[in-house]
Amino acid sequence: EGLPAKLINGGVAGIVGVTCVFPIDLAKTRLQNQRHGQQVYRSMVDCLLKTVRSEGYLGMYRGAAVNLTLVTPEKAIKLAANDFFRHHFARDGRGLTVFREMLAGCGAGICQVIITTPMEMLKIQLQDAGRLSNVAGTAVPARQYNAGVAAVRSVSATKIAWDLLHSQGVGGLYRGLGATLLRDVPFSVIYFPLFAHLNRLGQGQPSEAPPFYWSFLSGCGAGCIAAVAVNPCDVIKTRLQSLSRGAHEESYSGIVDCARKILRKEGPSAFLKGASCRALLIAPLFGIAQVVYVLGVGEFVLDYTPNTLFSA
């Protein structure tokens, strides 16, 4: 399987997956950013209902344009890098041990943060804008949900990116890089070996590919387990990458400071904020990704594309 096919597969998988589950991602970000005593949303469903009420149905897709633009290179890098490292580590003909599979996943996680960090940085500002407009003391009456909606809608990824570049340079877009690595590397270390082993259980013969529904279920299962396992790191990353804060919401100087303040002020359970959303988000996202990859959408496209486009 060539690199162009891997890139197409990763891109298509990312676009389809993001379109399907983005509202859940928005709920996850808003739930994770809530502080004790300033809880606007009680649950994922409550968050989505209030978002629709205050910002309309399109409000659930705030930040989706950033993801749809950058998810193609992100997923392409992640899936292609994992395949590259697995192929490289299996060159001696002895196959892949679990440790080598974990190393391949680690390499994929490190490679993807080149795109993931600025993508998440911009997406989080857009997703959290609606929550910040509704934070007002300990409770937010229903009649106040339309307040600040115009300001929320005026925020754009382009403006945020330019402001960051002018004030902080390229480094501004990579705020939270360490926390992103802390989340994505362990995720990939857990996800890719687990998916490979679950997927292998669906093979009738070693030389046969498992049915596509088995690949989907394997991707969902592995993604769900990996997502919940690294949720504490995702909470820290979300907090560190949030540029705007409500009244009385503390700031953080780094990963350790963030973890310490969350633990002291909100308790251990705060590290599981948005865990159910993240599981519901990641499971179908990676299930779809693996089905697209296994079905070979990229190969199909290339078979009907003039070879001269890729012969350079």
UniProtKB/TrEMBL annotation:
Task: Give TM segment ranges.
Answer: 279-302
> Its Gene Ontology molecular function terms?
L-aspartate transmembrane transporter activity; L-glutamate transmembrane transporter activity; symporter activity
According to its UniProt record, which reaction does this protein catalyse? L-glutamate(in) + H(+)(in) = L-glutamate(out) + H(+)(out)
Keyword Chaperone applies: no
Under the heading InterPro entries, the entry gives: MCP, MCP_dom_sf, MCP_transmembrane, Mito_Solute_Carrier
Q: Which family does it belong to?
A: Belongs to the mitochondrial carrier (TC 2.A.29) family.
Would you tell me the protein name for this molecule? Answer: Mitochondrial glutamate carrier 2
* Native species: Paramormyrops kingsleyae
